[in-house]
Amino acid sequence: MRVFKNTWFSRFAKKAGIDDGTLRGIVDELEAGKWDADLGSGVYKKRIAKQDEGKRGGYRIIVFFKNGTRTFFSYGFAKSVQGNISEKEVRVLRETSKEILNVSDAVLKSRIDTGNWIEITD
User: Fold this and answer.
1) Which has the closest alpha carbon to 59: 36, 30, 29?
2) pLDDT confidence tier of residue 66, bands split at 50, 70 and 90
3) pLDDT of 51 strictly over 90
4) Is residue 116 over pLDDT 60?
């Protein structure tokens, strides 16, 4: 399983104090069928607790996930800043997920080389 984050998500995670180990744990949960919402087309929502606060007021993470192949961390937000994502945003995320989860290895390498995507390694 290869795991990636885009540059926007990387900045969000750093600011929120979400490390790569936590992201790997989310991938493990997704592989085990544990998610908070299946939004369709490989788009999943996971809740992450803020330090010392729990999941209820924590972060929401949007992940593009295809079991056994690739995971892309795409978007995140604090529940206190944004209540949820709109249906219009969900539609855009579904279309984006379909594209990203099916890119060729050449496109994937190109996006890594240009810094658009960062691979999370063990």
Assistant:
1) 36
2) very high
3) no
4) yes
Per DSSP, 83 falls in state S
3-state SS class at 82: coil
How far is the C-alpha of 75 from the C-alpha of 1, rounded, in Å?
A: 20
Instruction: For residue 71, give the nearest of 39, 34, 97 by alpha carbon.
Output: 97
Q: Distance between CA atoms of 46 and 38, rounded to whole angstroms?
A: 9
Measured in whole angstroms, the distance separating CA 28 from the mean position of its chain's CA atoms is: 13
- Cβ neighbour number for residue 15 with a 10 Å cutoff: 10
Token pair for 66: 């295809």
State residue 107 phi and psi, 5-degree precision.
-65, -40
